[in-house]
Specification:
Structural class: alpha+beta
Helix content: 40-55%
Number of helices: 38
Low-confidence stretches: 1-38, 97-108, 140-162, 219-232, 304-314, 597-601, 604-608
Strand content: 5-15%
Number of strands: 27
Mean pLDDT: 82
Radius of gyration: 33 Å
Shape: globular
Strand order of the largest sheet: 16-19-24-23
Distance between the termini: 83 Å
Oligomer: single chain
Largest sheet: 4 strands, antiparallel
Length: about 1000
């Protein structure tokens, strides 16, 4: 079925796949272009929008493991029992681990992606055998006729009996040749590829397929390469295939001889390649979907706006997952949606006949994968792939260490740091040339799989450490613009001082210090990029010294294409694309590496963007909105208070301790209940979306995701039409929030200004949780259709809503609420802890959320509430600190119980195996001492005071002195005074200072003192 276009097929496209064309419902012939996010060029029309449905394929036309199992019912005699034994029992032995592990979606079948290719490929062989030999298999008992037509004398237009296989028309248009995948290469083609790892992958894939297809008892003797190696019982894919062909024919009184042409390994290999290159993967399950698999590859093009954001602040729009555009319905049909806007050029359209329909080829992005996967699975190499990368050997970054006669006394320390930071296997005992993992580097010098987790950059960290400790200041450059000179000029840190700090950190055995001083030191990003440039240059030089120039490769490719040698052409094209990336990396300039837009200028621009007059105008509109809420009780009003607090609230009359100053009915706040109640007059799709998220049956569903979607809808879609607009308009903008809320902090800034504090790791984990939520929501088709991808795929907008909820939620009745006006009350640490609770009301027939004063407040004075939280929580979730905070403490994190710890068996005595501690008083020190006692297998004391006995005291001293040393080192860093004009950097520095104060106090007052 087709909702907006119909597709036809043309053989062949330039990448070796069937090309789909779309007949758009326009009355003129035109050229078309693809765009993204609805940014339409002049003189053009969008004829298919992003996320518009293209077509839906019913389940009867889709092949998957489940549909094949239904075809060959799992009776005791089913050939699938043997097939399951071959692929599962022998799969662990033959398949690479990453291919063998069963994804969640097919866990009960125990089949990974390669095994699924094999099963679907075998099924296609059965169908083709019956289709090509219709006379042999035309059995009155054949029940494969899904049309319910009892006539048995109607040969169809394809010249073969439709009763033999209703897949005939599809089989006719599939390639009749073997897809030139990696595992079809011969010696000459592998030699042209010049990639040992890919060659091993390809040869091993072929070997595995042959071993599974043949057994020692097969006459073929193991196939083309004579590999054999199958089970001595004779059980093989070939014997299973024969049984499947016979079973499809149904009951018969005569024995059936399967034609040998149906059992050739070459046919098996061809169909496995077809499935591998064409089946889509949804949640770990492969689906071969006719029509959908004919859409050719073309990368999505980023709009000018998105490219500007990326250049300024990094990736702000998530790349939507493949699943978003290919949705599996409850009836197992699959709907395919456009992953871009399809644009018709109006100028061209105006010159064509009105009677001519326009034919436009559709394309889609296959996801963020490099070209080696296209080569391995699809059998082609894209001419344009922004995700392509070039392999650089890990040994390139240990080159100096391996030089003849060179010995570096710091090698053992590097090995120690790499182990401590989990960058190499803990059992490695010697730093050799093969130690560091090879890296795949993109043209923008980004490394694949590096930084997928916030705060975790294994490849970059390994290169940064080895470059600093095993290199020297003249490595990679002999001019005054070397990376080390740039670091010294910008940060005032010399190469020698950086290395000495790193070595000291390694000797301290403090992993936090190691990470900051050895892997994330000032300018480390530039050092890594410089090392990548140097390694790329060396690779190119080595190729050219062997006469292997890029020009020569191009000539070889042209010759291979003229001769029709597809596999050789694919191998050469892969080499050429990789060489292009190496050249781009080697020739890129290092000037500006890691430099961000001037942060002082950025802060000034944000502060000047909203004048006092503008805020006061918004306050007037907000006060009108508050009046419309008709609050039963309200004794506060918002004011522009300044002094870093922006807006606060002042008392409209004198307040005494215990006086109620505001009462809130249910319809005056934003929460799960009021959001759902308020969508009756909005689109039913939005109401359904909110209900879906409010009804999620998860342990931690506190309504956060639903509120986030509601805020995005009201703030960025409805805008002025939203009931809450005067409140939403008063809130800090994205630009304002990004200057002080830690959710927006750059890791590089935190590495420098929060170094030494465990709060840095706390914020990084917070950012990762936000990133996970962002990724999950962005893959929700319903949410994208309701909110639009311009909102939901925009990281800054989603993070804005996340930060608003985290910083402004007020809890009562066990639920979170966003409360206009009450959430404008600023915080201090005086008086009793803030509490809003439900109370009965005599005036209205409902419970009201009432807040009472915790201190005397005079008329016109600002009202404050005590959030009763330590500064690290106020900082992480709200973006501020309090001086003289009575609830303050130092976060102590990173402790855990290992399996081989002496007290591992007693870990059940602890509240957690990975606890965090809030160090501020004797009780917190006793709690820490109890953990250390259990961890180290020390006898427990008879009282809390006994936890500080002499046996545990040395452990406490060592731990706390380590924290003090780390923080004092961080405080000693030279920082430009101008930098402290920025509130967020000043807050980070103050956070480190607070931690140092708490640890010093605890050490001196509670640990070093003798009882």
């Amino acid at each position: 079925s087709s909702s907006s276009s119909s597709s036809s097929c043309q053989l062949e496209s330039t990448d070796g796949q069937c090309a789909a064309t779309s007949s758009a419902s326009t009355s003129s012939s035109a050229a078309a272009a693809s765009s993204d996010n609805r940014q339409t060029p002049p003189s053009s029309t969008i004829i298919i929008h992003h996320l518009d449905p293209l077509f839906t394929i019913p389940s009867t036309l889709i092949l998957s493991i489940e549909s094949i199992i239904d075809t060959y019912a799992l009776s005791s005699s089913s050939p699938l029992h043997s097939l399951n034994h071959i692929l599962i029992s022998r799969g662990a032995e033959l398949f690479p681990r990453e291919h063998y592990q069963a994804p969640v979606g097919v866990a009960r079948r125990g089949m990974g992606l390669v095994q699924q290719d094999i099963v679907i490929g075998l099924h296609l062989m059965v169908e083709e055998c019956h289709y090509l030999h219709a006379d042999l298999f035309n059995n009155d008992n054949d029940d494969d006729d899904n049309n319910g037509d009892d006539d048995d004398d109607d040969d169809d237009d394809w010249g073969r009996s439709s009763r033999a296989s209703h897949w005939g028309p599809y089989l006719d248009i599939l390639p009749q040749y073997t897809i030139p995948r990696l595992d079809t290469f011969d010696d000459e083609e592998y030699a042209a590829l010049k990639d040992e790892k890919l060659e091993y992958t390809g040869r091993n894939s072929r070997r595995v397929l042959e071993r599974l297809y043949y057994s020692n008892d097969d006459d073929d003797g193991g196939g083309a390469s004579g590999g054999g190696g199958g089970s001595s019982s004779g059980l093989s894919l070939k014997t299973v295939l024969q049984a499947m062909i016979r079973q499809k024919n149904g009951p018969t009184s005569l024995p059936l001889d399967v034609p040998e042409t149906c059992l050739r390994f070459e046919t098996f290999h061809r169909f496995v390649g077809i499935v591998s290159s064409r089946a889509m993967v949804l949640k770990g399950v492969k689906y071969l979907t006719p029509l959908a698999e004919m859409i050719n590859y073309s990368p999505k093009v980023r709009t000018t706006v998105q490219q500007h954001h990326e250049k300024k602040k990094g990736e702000d729009h998530i790349r939507a997952p493949f699943d978003l555009y290919h949705s599996l319905s409850p009836d197992n049909s699959i709907t395919v949606r456009s992953d871009r806007d399809i644009i018709l050029d109006d100028n061209t359209a105006s010159t064509s006949s009105s009677a001519t329909a326009t034919s436009i080829q559709l394309f889609e992005d296959y996801g963020p994968v490099d070209s080696s996967l296209f080569l391995e699975a699809h059998g082609f190499v894209p001419h344009e792939n922004p995700n392509n990368c070039a392999m650089i050997s890990g040994s390139s970054f240990l080159r100096r260490k391996s030089a003849v006669g060179r010995h570096d006394k710091n090698v053992s320390l590097v090995l120690q740091a790499l182990k401590a930071l989990h960058l190499i296997h803990p059992q490695v005992r010697e730093l050799d040339m093969m130690l560091l993992e090879d890296v795949c580097v993109k043209s923008d010098l980004g490394m694949v799989d590096d930084g997928n987790t916030v705060g975790r950059r294994p490849a970059s960290d390994s290169i940064a450490i080895t470059s600093l400790v095993l290199g020297d200041s003249h490595d990679n450059s002999n001019n005054n613009n070397s990376v080390w000179n740039r670091i010294e000029n910008k940060y005032g840190e010399t190469f020698v001082s950086l290395r000495e700090k790193c070595l000291a950190a390694i000797r301290s055995e403090d992993t936090e210090r190691m990470e900051i001083r050895c892997a994330r030191y000032p300018g480390s990003d530039g050092v890594v990029k410089d090392a990548l440039r140097t390694a790329s240059g060396r690779s190119i030089k080595r190729y050219e010294e062997d006469g292997d120039t890029e020009e020569k490769l191009v000539l070889q490719l042209q010759q291979a294409e003229l001769e029709g040698r597809d596999r050789l052409a694919v191998a050469l094209r892969f080499r050429i694309e990789e060489r292009k990336i190496l050249s781009q990396i080697a020739n890129s300039t290092g000037v500006g590496d890691g430099e961000k837009e001037d942060i002082v200028t950025e802060q000034m621009e944000v502060e000047s963007s909203e004048s006092v007059g503008n805020i006061e105008a918004k306050l007037i509109a907000f006060n009108t909105f508050v009046e419309s809420l008709d609050l039963p009780l309200n004794k506060i009003e918002p004011k522009l208070v300044g002094d870093g607090m922006r807006i606060g609230t002042c008392a409209t009359e004198d307040l005494e301790v215990g006086d109620a100053y505001i009462s809130l009915p249910a319809n005056s706040v934003i929460d799960v209940t009021t959001a759902l109640a308020g969508v009756d007059d909005k689109s039913s799709d939005f109401a359904s979306l909110l209900r879906k998220y409010s009804e999620l049956n998860t342990p931690y569903n506190d309504g956060f995701d639903m509120l986030l979607l509601y805020l995005l809808h009201e703030r960025f879609l409805l805008k002025e039409q939203s009931r809450w607009w005067p409140y939403l308009d008063l809130l800090p903008s994205i630009e304002e929030l990004s200057t002080f809320h830690p959710l927006f902090f750059e890791e590089e800034e935190m590495n420098r200004y929060l170094a030494g504090s465990d709060v840095r790791g706390f914020i990084l984990r917070y950012q990762q949780r936000a990133a996970d939520r962002y990724a999950a929501l962005s893959s929700d088709l319903d949410a994208n259709l309701v909110l639009g991808s311009d909102v939901l795929l925009d990281k800054e907008k989603v993070y804005w809503a996340t930060a608003i909820i985290d910083s402004r939620s007020i809890w009562w009745g066990g639920k979170r609420h966003i409360s206009p006006l009450l959430d404008l009350v600023n915080a201090d640490s005086q008086g009793a802890a803030h509490e809003t609770k439900l109370e009965d009301s005599e005036d209205v027939n409902q419970k009201l959320a009432v807040t009472r004063a915790s201190r005397h407040v005079g008329k016109g004075e600002q009202v404050f509430e005590n959030y009763a939280q330590p500064n690290y929580l106020l900082f992480a979730y709200h973006g501020f600190l309090l001086e003289d905070n009575a609830n303050d403490c130092a976060l102590l994190d990173g402790l855990f119980i290992r399996r081989n710890d002496p007290g591992a068996k007693s870990a059940h005595l602890l509240r957690s195996r990975t606890p965090t501690f809030c160090i501020r008083d004797l009780a917190s020190i006793e709690e820490l001492a109890h953990f250390l006692r259990v961890k180290h297998g020390l006898a427990s004391g008879n009282s809390s005071a006994a936890n500080l006995d002499d046996d545990v005291r040395p452990l406490l001293i060592d731990l706390l002195e380590g924290r003090v040393a780390r923080l004092m080192e961080a405080m000693s860093n030279d920082v430009d005074k101008e930098t402290f004009a920025l509130p967020r950097l000043n807050l980070m520095r103050q956070m480190v200072k607070n931690d140092l104060m708490h640890f010093q106090h605890a050490l001196k007052t509670h640990v070093l003192v003798q009882n």
